[in-house]
Amino acid sequence: MGADASGAVLEIEQGLTGLGTSFRDAFAAAPTEQALRDAHARVLGKKGDLTALLKRMGAVPAEARKVLGEQVNALKAEVESAFAARLAALARASRDAELAATPFDLSLPARVGTPRGHEHPIARVRDDLLAIFRDLGFVVASGPEVEFEANNFTRLGFPPDHPATDMQDSFWVSPGILLRTHTSNVQVREMMSRPPPLAVVSAGAVYRRDDDVTHSPMFHQIEGFLVAERVSFAELKGVLTAFAERLYGPGTPVRFRPSYFPFVEPGAEVDVGCVFCALPDGTRGGCRVCKHTGWLEVLGCGMIHPVVFEHVGIDPEKYTGFAFGLGVERVAMLRYGIPDIRLLFENDPRMLAQFG
Ligand code: FA5
Question: Higher model confidence: residue 104 or residue 334?
Fold first, then answer.
């Protein structure tokens, strides 16, 4: 055996003894995967202690190579298995820590303070309109949205199967029951439940088979009526003129045009002077909103038809009264310059935020 050969054998034997089981302590002490990989590299990396011994195996004479080789390979296997075991232990520990930690969901939106809600523009306009009539002495009442045909049509003087019912194309729930097409059902219910004098106002959702830029299948109406002895059209004009002035300002002109509703006689449509083209001298130049007429149509009204009084058990010889109904969306669209009624019900936050 040459000097180098015996030197290599000695070197490897001493190296094996020197390495001993020190790597086990180094692996066990490694607190992180990176530290463990560094410790592993110091043994089996390119410049690792055991790698250096493996490289020297070439110089070991054949007769010693088998025994020494087995020892070196056994140590190498031990290193690898200790490394793998520690790696698995570290991975388990980090997973356990993750599971024990407070959950953290990166996909949740950041908390930037709770946004404040506000009234929907329809609710705001509805409440403003109700407040005006409440101030004028009307009592607030409500009625159901699912209604008997009798209260929605028949008692109001719409003859059964008469084309007049087509005026308000309806959503039927079952024979004789429908989604109310107007708030005039409240007139019937209130007049049947209390004796005159009555001055009532009501607001709520109503439903019709309508769908375009100014007509929605669900919309809101305000209904008002007054029943007492010797009520005339003069009182109706007085109340609606006061209403127009409170809504659009003092001096707002009002005009009544004859119109037909089965439950009033005479009936009228009420227009108010266009507030968008009104000039300081009281004249109105005409504009796109009023279609250059100088007038905005806002409601329907009239003197309650004697037949309605008969149907609800009020003596038409003793009592008279007036009623009116208006669309809340119409007033809101005019007030806020909303061009399409559907914008009010799409619930797009970019639209609704403008009313905050
Ligand atoms: C009525 O509904 C009557 N009940 C009003 C009335 C009451 C007259 C008492 C006389 C006495 P009309 O169908 O015209 O009338 O509807 C009243 C208002 O509701 C309209 O002027 C309009 O502003 C609004 N309106 C009607 N249909 C729709 C719809 N599909 N979408 C939004 N607003 C509507």
Answer: 334
pLDDT 10s digits, 203-248: 999 999 888 888 999 999 999 999 999 999 999 999 999 999 999 8
Lowest mean pLDDT among 125-134, 156-165, 185-194: 156-165
Distance 9 CA to ligand 1 centre (A): 108
Q: Break the chain into its structural domains and give their ranges.
A: 3-100, 121-355
Main-chain phi, psi angles of 349, to 5 degrees = -60, -25
C-beta 269 within 6 A of ligand 1: no
- Those residues with Cβ within 8 angstroms of residue 61's Cβ, 6 or more apart along the chain or in another chain: 1, 5, 9
Domain 121-355: CATH class, spelled out: alpha beta
Q: Give the separation between CA 158 and CA 152, rounded to whole angstroms.
A: 9
Q: Give the Å distance between the CA of 73 and the centre of ligand 1.
A: 96
Distance 300 CA to ligand 1 centre (A): 7
Tens digits of per-residue pLDDT, 239-256?
Answer: 999 999 999 888 889 999
Nearest CA to ligand 1 atom 20: 327
Rounded distance from Cα 316 to ligand 1 centre (Å): 25
pLDDT, one tens digit per residue, over 13-30 is 888 888 888 899 999 999
For the Cβ of 215 lying below 6 angstroms from any atom of ligand 1, the answer is yes
Nearest CA to 49 out of 13, 89, 18 is that of 18
Cα dihedral sign, 287-292-293-296:
negative
